[in-house]
Amino acid sequence: xxxxxxxxxxxxxxxxxxxxxxxxxxxxxxxxxxxxxxxxxxxxxxxxxxxxxxxxxxxxxxxxxxxxxxxxxxxxxxxxxxxxxxxxxxxxxxxxxxxxxxxxxxxxxxxxxxxxxxxxxxxxxxxxxxxxxxxxxxxxxxxxxxxxxxxxxxxxxxxxxxxxxxxxxxxxxxxxxxxxxxxxxxxxxxxxxxxxxxxxxxxxxxxxxxxxxxxxxxxxxxxxxxxxxxxxxxxxxxxxxxxxxxxxxxxxxxxxxxxxxxxxxxxxxxxxxxxxxxxxxxxxxxxxxxxxxxxxxxxxxxxxxxxxx
Length: 309
Fold this sequence. Notes:
The structure is a single chain. This protein has 309 residues and is α/β, with parallel strands linked by helices. 35% of the residues lie in helices and 18% in strands. The protein is built from eleven helices and twelve strands. It has helices at 6-9, 30-52, 65-75, 79-83, 91-99, 114-120, 133-139, 175-187, 205-211, 269-272, 292-308, and strands spanning 56-59, 85-89, 106-110, 127-131, 148-153, 166-170, 192-196, 219-224, 236-239, 245-246, 257-261, 277-280. A seven-stranded parallel beta sheet has the order 8-7-6-11-9-12-10, with helices on one face. Strands 1-4-3-5-2 form a five-stranded mixed beta sheet. Strand 3 (106-110), helix 6 (114-120) and strand 4 (127-131) form a beta-alpha-beta unit. Helix 3 (65-75) runs parallel beside helix 7 (133-139), helix 8 packs parallel to helix 9 and helix 8 packs parallel to helix 11. It is elongated and about 60 Å long.
């Protein structure tokens, strides 16, 4: 539970159940005491409202500019770049953002959820918007729309850290794969993900949903040129379906950078030539190759296991 504001703590007689100050008796007569109490109560109530009353607006028109922006952010993979903001739909993503210290610009709730939300999510964002249920549902790209979401500012571009445990994405196209790899990277202690040009947008709505909050614990660099890899000072390991050392027989360097390639084409020849090590995953079942997200999870887990041995 959050501590009350300083001016609440300073009430000499403490704070009553009604949120008002209790007053200790002094040498003043009852009339003076009551007059001072009324004046103080009024000033106190005004200050309480200024601190604890959220900036709440209600939206009932489908032509509202915010709704138009939310539709774009929900359905257009590149809208976040143009608008400079992200739409986090659903309580899971919203909680993940708050847990990582993200301060939302706007919290959005449906009308029917608002009575509960103002208790559970009070003060979560700078501004709160309550939207008619049907209008908010129309914004969603989900089969089952959620009753809440956050609008947050797009993080500023980050500088590559040369010694960080890193995952490099080479032209991956599927948003689900990209989001799953971000989850694996976060789970297994990789702190930096570099998406080379041609890779699905890291902050696109489908990638955000597939990432399940992993975005907020990672350093994400997107749209990078291949030459940026020259600044990495950790060994570069490339995955392959047909050549290289067997992963289960290899002592992996730590930290390192894993290179994950295009779903159909794999790692490009030019990038593979930069790698210090090539690995493949044993598949005794006889399948030709693994889904790139599954392969990434196996490889990143192998690195994590090596680091704790």
